[in-house]
Amino acid sequence: MARKTGSHAETTGPRVRAAALRLFAQSGYAAVSMRQIAAEVGMQAGALYTYTADKQTLLFDLMREHMADVLEAWAAQPQGGSPGERLEQFTRFHINHHLDRPEGVFLSYMELRNLTPKNFAEIEALRRSYESELEAILIAGQENGAFSVPDTRLATMALIAMLTGITQWYRDDGRLSRERVQKIYWNMVRRAVKG
C-alpha cells in the first residue's frame, strides 16, 4: 500500500503510540491486536512495523516514555526546602502530573505483567528511581525528627499507591477541584508520616 499523503514518521509514529495507549488502556494489552491499532490510525496492519518492531516493543516504549516523562518533570521541580516542604511538593506534583495522564498511569501499573523479563527489569529500574526520590525525602525527615515512620521503603510504596489511586476515580467535572483534592491528600500524607 502506498504511503498516505501526510503520513510521516514524525506525525504517524506519535499517532500509532497514542492509539495503542488508548486501546491498551481501554481493553487491555492482551485483547488488542496490531490490526486494531492500525485501523485506529487508518493504515494497513503491515505498515505499523515501520513504526514499531512488534506489540511488545510498543507496550515497552509507552511505559518507558511514561516513566521518563515522570522523572524528567520531577527533576524540573524546584529543589530545596525542608523535608516537610519537599513532601508536600512531591504529593502535589504526583497528583497533578498523573491526573493529566490516566491512560499512561493505568498502563504502567496494570500491564507490567505483560512485559518480557528484560523489559520489565528496565521499567522496574525507572520506577525505583522515582520511588527513591520520595524515599529520600522520608529518610531526610526521619533523620531530622520531622517524620516518624516504621519503615521508609514501605511508607514510600504506600504513599505512592495512595496518590496514584486518584487517577481511578477523579474527574475534572466532579464535585472536588484538583486543588481541593491535593489539599486533602496532603493533609492525609502529612498525618501518615507523623507516626
Low-confidence stretches: 1-7
Per the principal axes of the C-alpha atoms, what is the gross shape?
A: elongated
Write down the Rg.
19 Å
Order of helices and strands: HHHHHHHHH
- Alpha carbon gap, first and last residue: 64 Å
Q: Architecture of the largest domain, CATH level 2?
A: Orthogonal Bundle
Strand content: under 5%
Overall tally of domains: 2
Class based on secondary structure composition and strand pairing: mainly alpha
Number of helices: 9
What is the overall pLDDT average? Answer: 92
Q: What is the fold named in CATH at topology level of the largest domain?
A: Tetracycline Repressor, domain 2
The helix content is 55-70%
Summarize the biggest pleated sheet: none
Domain HTH tetR-type: 10-70
Protein name: TetR family transcriptional regulator
Pfam family, one: TetR_N
Keywords: DNA-binding, Repressor, Transcription, Transcription regulation
